[in-house]
Amino acid sequence: MAVKPYRIIPTECMNVSHRKTVPAAMILLLLLLLASCILPIRTFDEQRWRAQVDSTDPALLYAPHLEDGRYFNPWMPMHRGFGDFLRWQLSERTLYSPEEEEEVPRVLSDLPERIRSTPGDFIAWIGHATFLIRINGVYWITDPIFSERALLPKRKTPPGLSLEEFAALPGKKNVLISHSHYDHLDSNSIRRLPADTRVYVPLGLKALMNDLGKQDVVEMDWWQAVSCGDRCQVVCLPAQHWSRRITQTTDTTLWASFLLVTSDRKIYYGGDSGYFIGYREIGRRYPGIDYALLPVTAYDPRWFMHYAHLDAREALDAFRDLGARYFIPTQWGTFRLGDEPIGQVPSSLSKAALSTGTDPARIIVMGIGQLLPTDSRDPKL
């Protein structure tokens, strides 16, 4: 039986005035350890969950989503609290083989040189949810995190490009921020971006961007579209997630996905999300998406993660709902945020593609630092 480790604070770290509470604290610790040994892996009814998703009303995707200063998903509000988190921490963990635990994505070097030698547009994976996109010669970066930690979780693989190398690229930079969680909004990385960087954020995050030294900030609500240049639009779209930072109350800023639209290209960036009917509506309203960058991470245990995260099968379902030409998985291979190993996504997607009849040629699993030219309708890695 695998149990999550607990950090025991040595008694010498406790204030002398609290020595009388040590026995009670030790009893509580022992109870927690005992509970972790008797709480089994909780089962999860996939069919019931899918029925819940399918029964939601698409009209609620357009409903008001702010009440008493907090944002929410009106089609299916989240009902999960600290007790659920505690149960996850006190439960058994799924056992993975040593080979699965050790697997990581390949990391390619010399990305700056390959950028300079690539004449057209491209998508390059920097790591986690950070992608560098050149579209119509303009640079975009999604949820940039170059730091060693996402608050607490430590990087397992290096970024495919340094922040200094990104800043050295010619022209003004554009950034898409999907939400406030630390693995998507890294204060240190935002602070170190060039001062004239334009940042697109969901509602509520402009003030934080200003505090981090970025004044060219476009704050957007779901379904809002803004011009980003000649024949170019950024569309802010719904996602099924939530928000919080240490200095921010839960859900006081919005979360979102984004669509980059030009005269000859549509690139969808899914941010962080669980599976929801919004993918069908986005595909209906914006047909002809070329690339769908969708998260596949932190899906184990399913009973706890299913609302806010996609597993491999759901990611392929979202890809199908969007009607996109190609699917690129995001958010794997860098930080361990769920119980599953960081390198499990390729094998999970292969199995899911087989069971769902998805053409594997339409799934592009990139390596960190890999550059994918997008001018061709049939890209070759």
Automatic annotation (TrEMBL):
Gene3D superfamilies: Ribonuclease Z/Hydroxyacylglutathione hydrolase-like. One of its GO terms (cellular component) is cytoplasm. It comes from Syntrophus gentianae. The keyword Transmembrane helix applies. This is N-acyl-phosphatidylethanolamine-hydrolysing phospholipase D. Residues 142-330 form the Metallo-beta-lactamase domain. Keywords: Membrane, Transmembrane, Transmembrane helix. PANTHER family: N-ACYL-PHOSPHATIDYLETHANOLAMINE-HYDROLYZING PHOSPHOLIPASE D (PTHR15032). The chain crosses the membrane at residues 21-41.
